[in-house]
Amino acid sequence: MWSNHIKYHWPMRTHQLVLQWIENQLSSGELALGGRLPAERMLAEQLQVSRTSVREAIRVLEAMGVVRAGVGSGPDAGTVVIADPTAALGSALRLHVATSHLPVADIVQTRVLLESWAVARARTDSPALAEAAGLMEKMEACHDTDEFLALDVRFHLALAEAAGNAVVSAMMGSLREAIQSYAGKLTANLPDWEATAARLRAEHREILAAINNHDGGRAAGLVAAHIEGYYKEAGLDPRDSDPARQ
Amino acid sequence: MWSNHIKYHWPMRTHQLVLQWIENQLSSGELALGGRLPAERMLAEQLQVSRTSVREAIRVLEAMGVVRAGVGSGPDAGTVVIADPTAALGSALRLHVATSHLPVADIVQTRVLLESWAVARARTDSPALAEAAGLMEKMEACHDTDEFLALDVRFHLALAEAAGNAVVSAMMGSLREAIQSYAGKLTANLPDWEATAARLRAEHREILAAINNHDGGRAAGLVAAHIEGYYKEAGLDPRDSDPARQ
DNA sequence: TACTTGATGTGGTTGGACCACATCCTCTAG
DNA sequence: CTAGAGGATGTGGTCCAACCACATCAAGTA
Asked: Lower CB density within 10 Å: C or N end of chain B?
């Protein structure tokens, strides 16, 4: 019933007023993707608030992946509306993992849930699926660990996108980002990387084959085993919230 | 491989430096839940930055549901660490729905996915499940539409929590928040509210019965039908991003 | 014509000032 | 000795006036 961006009974903080104004502009369509906000000084004068408050609001929107601020002049300058839900969700999840309020095990479990669903619903004619196939090809010939892992991230994101649900895709990406450092550290625990990589490649082939075979149920099971197997082999310890901290 | 909060090659903005410092404090445990950040002026001097930059960082953390800022003196004053992942995810989703980048239909579909999974995994001895049962009892006797809807929100959140996955719970809550206004407007479209309410009550009973019967698969199917049925009856139109805007 | 050079406009950062508020401490009146 | 009034202190909230770095564009110059 309540909403954290609207305080009904006590005075709204100034930057929240700016936030609400911008959100209204977005909702009404007067501010669309790719559009530019008025300059900070102009917006401040227009709304009769200080530039400080405008900047605080913009900072929040930037953290939410809604705008991007660029200095100088020209096309890349000014504050423009973008759409990067993954950034917002990822940062938020990562911070809450840092406070030990969101267990890494729950994140992995959620990733399994979302990705299983996604591959079960993947459309075989999806461009994202074609991209996944291409990435898999690259991984066949790739023997550099870091590059392999980077390709692996993009492969799984492409799989998630193949279902055509933007929310699921964004959440998958954010989960990945939130445990990025964790997964990286886990890789160092693997006893034999080459053997693991070979297994991963084989499993990727099986997953794609199941999808192209229109066997969504089998694909989902394979993906779940693929992810859980990796974390299990690397020795996931849910109690440690962030092994990669400095 | 990239991360939006770490810019490797060009100078980091000052508020991001502050953000990183605070995140490190959180990760290392020096700053825990319920703990208080140094006063803005102190932190500014300590990190050798302006108070403005400190404030921008705190504003971001506040939007992420990581801290809460309170004026005055005493226990409620100062900037203290909280843990409200739902707020962050909810605001982010809502904003991106406003930009028409996240279709409402995808949000509903994701909600079905998460909630089905949650009830399938619900533990019958979970306190959240007991709470859900209590809420259902209240709804049996409730004939006020707004109150009924409020209870319904809490009922479904309790169901989601019964699976014991904090990430899934947070995401469920945020999805709810993001389409709150949308769902409210849809309710007005219903031809016969009393009839709908009666159906919802019956379905709630069936869902809880299936869970307590340890029939997770049936519970999941019932929940999916329950949610999809509601939106279908109210006439979900995925193209309209936010019917409740001013 | 080609290049230099300033004008312009953007966000980024800083220091200082003042406000409202809530608590705590001290001093005073009873 | 107690109870209350009133200031001291410290918190975030807000605003202002500068200055910087940067990128583009236009005018002036060789």
From this structure: C
